[in-house]
Amino acid sequence: MATAGAAAATVLTPEQAKARALARVDYPANRLANIADLMVNEPMDISYPDADSPGVLLKLGQAVEGGVGPEGDVVAFSVLCPHKGWMMSYSAADKTLNCPGHHSRFDCETGGQQVWGHATSNLAQFTLRLDDSGDIYADGVDELIYGRLSNVL
Fold first, then answer.
1. CA-CA to 141 of 20 to 30 Å: which in 41, 52, 97, 128?
2. How do the residues of the chain divide into helix, strand and coil, expressed in percent and rounded to 5?
3. Which of 20, 31, 102, 129 is catalytic?
4. Which pLDDT score, from 0 to 100, does residue 34 have?
5. 3-state SS class at 19
6. According to the model, what pLDDT value does residue 19 have?
7. Given 35, 75, 83, 96, the catalytic residue
8. Is the pLDDT of residue 8 over 50?
9. Integer Cα distance of 20 and 132 in angstroms
């Protein structure tokens, strides 16, 4: 007997997309690195929006959701698991961030979408931009960072 799998995709109406954009909190811009400093699939430790919020900057090697740079492949995420705040590590083999606490996993190629575990929300992704000199800046966050009551500084 054969089984068939199904894939689900979220399609936002224009009104939902506008509301989601309005929900992003804008932070002052922080320079994270220069694009020349990044290697494909080699995570770079960062902090954003402040020193108490560890994150990771990644060059994934192919265009992804929220990616910046010439290839659209540079993204950044909080490394605090949204479930209980454990510090996560990057797996280059499947491009996920993985929590050692309760084994939640988040796909870096799909905007930090949760793919396994106890977490009840996706991973906070940092909004990035690239300037003309190749400097990468973070300007905001799309989800609540663990341990904060809001994403307002």
1. 41
2. 10, 35, 50
3. 102
4. 98
5. helix
6. 56
7. 83
8. no
9. 28
Q: What confidence tens digit (pLDDT) does each residue in 42-56 have?
A: 999 999 999 999 999
Report the C-alpha gap between 133 and 149 in whole angstroms.
35
Q: What letter would DSSP give residue 80?
A: B
**Amino acid of residue 15:** E
Is 83 assigned a catalytic role? Answer: yes
Who's near 5: CB < 8 A, 6+ residues apart? none
Element (H, E) at 59: strand 54-59
**Residue indicated by tokens 């740079």:** 69
Output phi, psi for 62, to 5 deg: -155, 150
Retrieve residue 27's tokens: 């932070």
Q: Hey, is 108 helix, strand or coil?
A: helix
Tokens of 28: 């002052």
Q: What average pLDDT does range 57-77 have in this prediction?
A: 96
Confidence of residue 32 (pLDDT cuts 50, 70, 90): very high
Place of tokens 């430790």: 45
**Residue 12 in this model has a pLDDT that exceeds 70:** no
